[in-house]
Write a structure and sequence with these properties.
4 strands; globular
Length: 334
């Protein structure tokens, strides 16, 4: 029953996020919002909405380990798995100017986030700073993409036009948005409760479930997009997808979550998981900064590194202690 709850929650969550994006994109187009703005805001926030709702729901339920585990685990999965598997299909080129620019920002933000977590607790003012940095990044990205000579802006526009099966009226788009939000809330509730029950039954910490099952589940859209991009030999889309997702996870999802409720950072994250996240970023840094390609062999190495990391979590190599399960975590959200 627990596995069914987790699976149902994940499916509803992903479908809800997809429906929300379709409705929001149509509404923005009807309101004559420029496609470039839609791509950098509506689609970016919409595709990250499952992670956001899960993280906020987790802190409200009293299991912040799942909230921070979802963000850190998603970033690790994005780099090691979402880049590793597509590179096995076709080498990923990192020579686009926007990739080098945004990749450098991702590395800096990841390092700053690790340093911030060493305070032991992410609170509202820190979350506000992260959310403000995201707004500044989006504004700067808009003007940079609009003025670039390469195909960055065109790629974003093509992404918008490629969203099929959109509603054709404002009222229907509003219905899509409401249905998507409802799906996100309900799916998140099922996924978090199922994840907590699963952790309790398996005797593993909630953080482990957040770092693996929930993080990987909410990263499935990025994985699917990157695999399709690799098959079509658009490696710049794959790497850009990962960089953008990681920035949104840290600045947007963790920032908003910290503003909703303080997020304590368990010691295990400080001594292991955050360092793995930073190391994963450094593993792709030479390719991003030099503009070279991630080969099939290196893609296999990244995927193997992710499998090793997951193995370490479930077999005690990370020395993670099982945190007690609060009754609040098992109660429905108000």
């Amino acid at each position: 029953m627990t596995y069914l709850m987790v699976a149902a929650g994940l499916i509803i969550l992903l479908v809800g996020g997809d429906v929300l994006v379709r409705g929001a994109v149509t509404l923005a187009r009807r309101l004559e919002v420029p496609p470039l703005v839609i791509g950098l805001t509506v689609v970016a926030f919409g595709t990250s909405s499952p992670e956001l709702v899960v993280s906020v729901g987790a802190v409200l339920r009293g299991v912040p380990e799942i909230a921070i585990g979802n963000v850190v685990g998603s970033n690790i999965a994005n780099i090691l798995l979402v880049l590793g598997l597509p590179a096995l299909v076709y080498p990923i080129a990192c020579d686009a100017g926007a990739v080098r620019r945004d990749g450098t920002i991702m590395l800096a933000i990841s390092a700053a986030f690790v340093a911030l977590c060493w305070t032991g607790r992410l609170v509202d003012w820190q979350g506000a700073i992260m959310a403000s940095l995201l707004c500044g990044y989006l504004t700067w990205s808009y003007f940079a993409a609009r003025d670039e000579s390469d195909a960055t802006a065109e790629t974003i526009v093509d992404e918008i036009e490629g969203i099929a099966a959109r509603p054709h009226s404002i009222w229907l788009s509003l219905a899509f948005i409401l249905a998507g939000l409802a799906g996100l809330v309900y799916g998140s509730d099922l996924l978090v409760r199922g994840g907590v029950d699963l952790a309790r039954a398996a005797g593993v910490p909630e953080a482990t479930i957040g770092l693996t099952l929930i993080a990987l589940g909410t990263s499935l859209p990025e994985l699917a997009t990157s695999l399709v991009a690799a098959i079509r030999r658009h490696g710049d889309v794959a790497i850009g997808n990962v960089i953008g997702s990681n920035l949104f996870n840290i600045l947007g999802i963790m920032g908003i979550t910290a503003m909703v409720r303080p997020v304590p950072v368990p010691e295990q994250f400080l001594t292991y998981d955050l360092l793995v996240m930073l190391l994963a970023s450094l593993l792709v840094a030479p390719f991003v900064l030099r503009g070279s390609s991630i080969s099939r062999a290196y893609g296999g190495f990244l995927a193997l590194a992710y499998a090793t990391y997951v193995y370490s979590l479930f077999h005690g190599m990370s020395a993670m202690s099982n945190s007690g399960l609060t009754q609040a975590a098992l109660q429905p959200l108000p």
